[in-house]
Fold this protein.
Amino acid sequence: MSSLTTRELADLVGGELRGTGTRLIDDVAGLDEAIASQVTFIEGAAADGSPKTSAGAVILAAEHLGVLGDAPKSDLILVPAPLDAFVTAMLHLRPMPSAPDVGRSPQAHISPTATVGSDSHIFPGATIGDDVQIGDRCIIHPGVVIGAGCRLGDDVTIHANAVLYAGVSLGDRVIVHATAVIGADGFGYQFRDGRFTRIPHTGTVRIEADVEIGAGATVDRAMIGATIVGAGTKLDNQVMIAHNCRLGKHNAFASQVGLAGSVTTGDYVRCGGQAGIADHAHLGTGSSVGGKAGVHGRVPDGADYHGYPAGPAKEQYRIVMAVQRAPEMRRQIRALEKQLKQIQSLLGEADSHQPSTASAPAA
Amino acid sequence: MSSLTTRELADLVGGELRGTGTRLIDDVAGLDEAIASQVTFIEGAAADGSPKTSAGAVILAAEHLGVLGDAPKSDLILVPAPLDAFVTAMLHLRPMPSAPDVGRSPQAHISPTATVGSDSHIFPGATIGDDVQIGDRCIIHPGVVIGAGCRLGDDVTIHANAVLYAGVSLGDRVIVHATAVIGADGFGYQFRDGRFTRIPHTGTVRIEADVEIGAGATVDRAMIGATIVGAGTKLDNQVMIAHNCRLGKHNAFASQVGLAGSVTTGDYVRCGGQAGIADHAHLGTGSSVGGKAGVHGRVPDGADYHGYPAGPAKEQYRIVMAVQRAPEMRRQIRALEKQLKQIQSLLGEADSHQPSTASAPAA
Amino acid sequence: MSSLTTRELADLVGGELRGTGTRLIDDVAGLDEAIASQVTFIEGAAADGSPKTSAGAVILAAEHLGVLGDAPKSDLILVPAPLDAFVTAMLHLRPMPSAPDVGRSPQAHISPTATVGSDSHIFPGATIGDDVQIGDRCIIHPGVVIGAGCRLGDDVTIHANAVLYAGVSLGDRVIVHATAVIGADGFGYQFRDGRFTRIPHTGTVRIEADVEIGAGATVDRAMIGATIVGAGTKLDNQVMIAHNCRLGKHNAFASQVGLAGSVTTGDYVRCGGQAGIADHAHLGTGSSVGGKAGVHGRVPDGADYHGYPAGPAKEQYRIVMAVQRAPEMRRQIRALEKQLKQIQSLLGEADSHQPSTASAPAA
């Protein structure tokens, strides 16, 4: 690893130095773990309370200048966007390895009818099917299997042992993580004569530009048309997208989210972990779905849905609060019933003492 | 792609033509997406409302003849089972690729003690262990790993990078999708001396005929006997079947369903997505479990269970409806308490105005 | 298979024989399935009711001696720990295959800069990256991909098609099951200018000794430091551990459990299947989380949490019981409202009969 003085570091990230400027920094670390030779950063919730650190340098926003006390032990570097500046420092101190110069490995299994763009690398053990088209600067890791007729844009990375069934298309800059599977046949059967018969799925999957698909995620092919994942959408590990779904742009789905068949989403939709969306549901643009929520039907644009069955967050919050009180409610109801009986009994007695009352209540 | 006149298409699917019979059709499409050179179909919910389409031909049932209006723009083809007829048309217009003539690829790693039936294909990068027996007309895709002693029937397809641990057996016509894992050791430990010690799992997995196992699904081996997936059962992507489970025939489990150890099921059982079944539970023949439901104990034959904890659908529906009203119930209880206090106070007052009343209510 | 007399079997497991001692036993089986040539065992719930078996030998604890009746058909072998003794018998009758003598397969793709310890085996189709260090007696199955710079201790087993991204470390005796993925980039983005920009993840994953990771499980790398799985912890299939999580020692998480980012756990923590833990939550030492539970915040040491949102088991049990009664509660509330109206009406009437009452109740 290279190292920098805190002054050099402040210059690198375009920040304002407060401190000696002479400390030597050779790595990055989290706030709690950083030592004198490391730089850390403070942003968001980390600025609350009284954060402590032994870092040699701390990148933070001017408005958080005081959070480390009047005489901080660290050199401070003030910037408008601490995480951005920290990432810049991190990439300098921990340079990402450049693409390995593998080229078309002779130990990869590449169909003679496949075309591979310039500066693309196909690792040993990868399999590229007939008529596959791969763009420029793509990296196909070991064990990846790309079925016949798939089309990959430029700058696509496919991590180890991921699988593309035949005929799938990926836009530019798509990242597919290890063991993800794109284009398996959708879960569609006809039930007749007491058994399930597969409905052939001759559709495909279209992954648009800048999509990232997590490890172990699965995106099934459509029956006729295309299952679509819109540009810029990010799917975490173990997400499931069933056949015929059409996701908008810039969605973000956390791990283990499952979408049943033919779900549609607008743009900028977010789903928390383990949320489940029933078939043919729609998640409106800008909507968000809470972790573990179970959604049927339509979520309006911009709405925030939680719970199972899911509803607007405010309502769900009230329901959850009330449900926590359900045992108390049972006790209250029993108490009310008892008191009412006493009153009824008292009134019956009182009644018998009131000969002047002509009418009695109906049973 | 080939093309057909609508008359030829009607003949192909055995339907009754209404229209010109001369339109040329060269592909299939969904109702909303179809253009003049394409055939679509109407079935089930798609017949509701007033469906619109620009398709050159529409396959539909006679009873839905009117849904496209009195003067439909499309040629109509009337059949008793529209989806069946549509699939016939689709397979004609989009013929499925025939099995590639790979044979036993020299780039596959095949044990000399393995036996492979006739017309079976082992792709590059697949690994076939010692004493494996593979039937006729099987397709073993790239990267598949089949452990020692596994037995595969005829017409089995195993998609890329799926893994069979040693000693697993698959019946005829089984389909295993990409990255599925069959036969991993069950999650069984003894806890002693402050640590978990693995219980060896010397059992196996038996997948019966006509089973389909989704991408990323996992079926663990039994401790002693066999984890069984009954004939005709279909498991969607990312389904988990734990050790010692015994599934009946013709079950269908949607994506991300999880069965804990030793669960048993009858025949014709269905589970919605993300349902979880606790260990040793039993799902009766013909029962169904809703999406996201959490099941303990026994689900009776033919029952429909929902919710967490799961119960009969009708009860659960009433519970969910009531829970949605829980905040209102709290308000109602508070109102009742207030009114009751007022009555009690009134009665106390009334009491003091009734000197003739001899007895006072108990405290 | 070898075979033993029941006397030899009793000696093998150090048990006390009750019976002929001369029956021949050649395999193990479950209680229900065992035949005359097999040994089974009784422990825990299996001792309840009146278990029946046709096994030639039954291993059981002295206190369960009577559960098979006064004249059991099987030879009995009395031991203090039946499962332990049964496992001993099982491993004798079904010896585990010894490590195959593959060595460094010429069909594996091993970087010349990788180092591999003695008695380690690298199967065909495995890929070992630059500068990888592998200890002694490791088994790397077919299709495994180990990224550059990974370090594996001694006696590590990695099953087929599992993937380690670059720079991950595994302690001694770690077992990674098929298609598990360790070290993929965490799901971390900055949202700006209307799109998600990946935050580079330069951290790593550290898997400590004696950890077992299930098939299809995913453990993401940290942004800066390390995602940690503590010694002896067992993760079942399809478990998800997000970036920056730090798990203690001897945890056990059942299948499909998901931990969001930066979750921490103490030692001896258990999670039931499909439980979900929100980001930055903490599960205290000795705590347990029920299946399908959804946890936010802190679970105290030793606590037992259930439900969604999760709370202490006793409270949750009361809540669930009350929620099951929610429809009844609604009926009770309606009945109370009706009765109250009747009383109010009666009191109004009674009031009109009581001219001496000066004050009327407030509205």
